[in-house]
Every structure is written in structure tokens, then in C-alpha cells.
Specification:
Layout: E1 16-20, E2 23-27, H1 36-46, E3 50-55, H2 61-71, H3 74-81, E4 85-90, H4 93-97, H5 107-129, E5 137-141, E6 147-151, H6 160-168, H7 171-183, H8 189-201, H9 205-209, H10 212-221, H11 230-247, H12 251-262, H13 269-284, H14 292-305, H15 310-329
Parallel strand pairs: 3-4
Antiparallel strand pairs: 1-2, 3-5, 5-6
Helix pairs in contact: 8-10, 10-11, 11-12, 12-13, 13-14, 14-15
Length: about 325
């Protein structure tokens, strides 16, 4: 089984479209969605679970065999797509070659190429969050976007029948997750926050990466931090967003989010100090000399919150380093 992601390759799909409420959503030749958010949105709307399938067609024999035996099987649409939304990410030289737009390309072709690049980048981030290392790989999500499980299919039994069987093996877990989530909708603000925190705390790292709905609920429920828990979710929300921004090399935007969180009156001093440190650290990763003035401002602001804290020593060390670096470049 070949390892994926030795380099990031732009995806290509032969576009067809499914329609829901007048809006069209791109799907590939197998009937699978191209965009994770499209499939997630429609799954919630229809109340169905959704699947992510990752392959490496042409570069990996198992992926090619899986696509032929399962995704391109006539039974796939009738047995799988009627019950689940499926997103298919294919990271391969074969699909990359089809993204090349030659001279004389029409405006429509260029628009499709831009769409492919944008959604492919998103797909790559999803794959990283899943810690996907090989292909083919299949993952199941509940209707509200919670990660349920990886679906393991033995290479000697690539068939639609076995595909469905292995997906359905996690039916119980999916239902339990949704029942636990439903329970967070009942009770007082404090009671609901405790239920959310209990569920979120039980998640592993991958599960937390896809618990957006739980994080957003916590932030919207407890606007005054009555439970004493909301800051945790404000921070988690920023952590998740900035991870994506940094992967997209949008470092200034990511640092700005931590800065804004540090201005929130609900946030305690220690968390604010961390926010300033993270903001400075993110900009430091750019190795951009022009970012040094902003790095120094973040460090100054963080230290000023508690000059006697242990963190202040780290701020001083980092501040002195960048101050000297700035002066040596003048």
C-alpha cells in the first residue's frame, strides 16, 4: 500500500452536478462529491451520514482496483449513494495530469481549474486532519459532522456488498454520538455546557478536529461564561481555524485571530498571554523580517499582562532574539 502525500497534487474531477433546492453541487464520474463542505451540508439537511474516500488512482494498484470494484460498480449508486453522501479525494499523478489547461482554454475551463484548486486544497487539509497515511482509506462521519470511525476493508474483498457491510458496522457508534449531541440541547446553560464538555473531552485528537458543531454551540450558548467553560471553546475554535490558515500559509490572518481573542473580556489573563505568544510564534514561522515589528508588539503586550510570571521570561528571551535580529539587519 503506497504512502500518500509525498507531495501535494491538485485534484481533477470530471464534473457532473447534483442539484438540491436549486443549487448545483459538483460530483465526480462515480457520483461522489468533490467538496467536503457540500457533502457535509447536504448530509445534515437530509439527516444522513457521509463518507470520505481517499485514493491514489494509477499510482497505487490497490486504489485503482478499489475504484474499479467499488466506486465504479453499477451497484455503488444504488446501494451506497442512496444512503450516504460520499466525498472522493484522489491524490495521484493520473488526475493531476488532467488539470493542465493549455493555450486557448475557455473562461469556463479556467473557472473549473480555479474551483478544483480551491477545493483540492481543502481536501488535502481534511486528509491531514484524518492523519491519512495510505490509500485507499475510508472514513465515516455522522449527520452533524462528527467523526465516527475509519472503515477498514480487506484488500481481498473489495466489493460494494462488503463496503456497505463494513460501513454499517459503525452504525451503533454513529447513533450514540448523535444521541449524546442531542442531549446537549436540553437543560440550563450550565447543564448544557457540562454535557458539551463531557462529550468533547471524551474525544481523541481526530474527533476533536471535526467537532465544529459542538464548539460553535458552546460559544453561542454561554455568551457570558456562566459555566466557566466557554473560554476553552473560544480558544479551541481559534486553534482549529488558525491550523487551517497556517496550512494555507495565511500566517498574518492566523496571528490576528489570536490577537483578537486576547481582546475578549471573557478571556482570563493566562489565556490572553498564551494568545499573544501564539500570535508572535506564528509570525516567527514566516522567517519574514518585515514581521519583526509586529512580533515585538505581540511579545510586549503579552509580557505587560503579568511581568512577574514564568511566561515573562520566555517572552523576554524571544523578544531579545528578535530585537537583536532586527537591529543587525539595519
Amino acid at each position: 500500500m503506497k504512502k500518500l502525500f509525498a507531495k501535494f497534487l491538485i485534484l481533477f474531477v470530471i464534473f457532473s452536478f447534483c442539484s438540491c433546492g436549486g443549487k448545483k453541487y459538483a460530483t465526480d464520474e462515480c457520483g461522489c462529491f468533490f467538496d467536503f463542505d457540500d457533502a457535509k451540508y447536504l448530509a445534515k439537511k437530509k439527516g444522513t451520514d457521509f463518507l470520505v474516500v481517499i485514493t491514489n488512482d494509477g499510482d497505487d494498484e490497490l486504489s485503482s482496483y478499489f475504484i474499479k470494484s467499488v466506486l465504479k460498480s453499477p451497484d455503488f449508486k444504488s446501494s451506497v449513494l442512496k444512503k450516504y453522501n460520499v466525498i472522493h479525494f484522489d491524490f495521484s499523478q493520473k488526475t493531476y495530469a488532467k488539470t493542465q489547461v493549455g493555450e486557448g482554454a475557455t473562461e469556463e475551463m479556467l473557472k473549473q481549474a480555479e474551483l478544483i484548486q480551491r477545493t483540492a486544497s481543502k481536501g488535502f487539509l481534511i486528509s491531514r486532519k484524518l492523519n491519512c497515511q495510505s490509500a485507499p482509506s475510508i472514513y465515516r462521519f455522522s449527520k452533524n459532522g462528527f467523526f465516527v470511525s475509519e472503515v477498514v476493508i480487506e484488500k481481498d474483498d473489495y466489493s460494494v456488498l462488503n463496503f456497505v457491510k463494513q460501513v454499517e458496522a459503525s452504525d451503533k457508534k454513529s447513533l450514540e454520538l448523535e444521541e449524546q449531541y442531542k442531549a446537549t440541547k436540553e437543560g440550563s446553560v450550565v447543564e448544557r455546557m457540562k454535557k458539551i464538555d463531557s462529550l468533547f473531552t471524551s474525544f481523541n485528537l481526530v474527533e476533536k478536529s471535526f467537532a465544529d458543531v459542538l464548539i460553535k454551540d458552546a460559544i453561542s450558548i454561554d455568551k457570558t461564561n456562566e459555566s466557566g467553560l466557554v473560554v476553552k471553546y473560544l480558544m479551541q475554535d481559534v486553534d482549529n481555524i488558525t491550523t487551517d490558515l497556517c496550512n494555507e500559509k495565511k500566517f498574518s490572518e492566523a496571528a490576528e485571530l489570536y490577537y483578537k481573542l486576547a481582546q475578549n473580556e471573557l478571556v482570563d489573563t493566562d489565556t490572553k498571554i498564551n494568545c499573544y505568544f501564539y500570535a508572535a510564534y506564528i509570525l516567527a514561522m514566516t522567517n519574514d523580517m518585515e514581521q519583526i515589528p509586529q512580533i515585538l508588539k505581540y511579545l510586549e503586550a503579552g509580557k505587560a499582562l503579568n511581568p512577574e510570571s514564568d511566561a515573562a521570561i520566555e517572552f523576554d528571551d524571544m523578544y531579545n532574539y528578535f530585537k537583536e535580529l532586527s537591529e543587525s539587519a539595519e
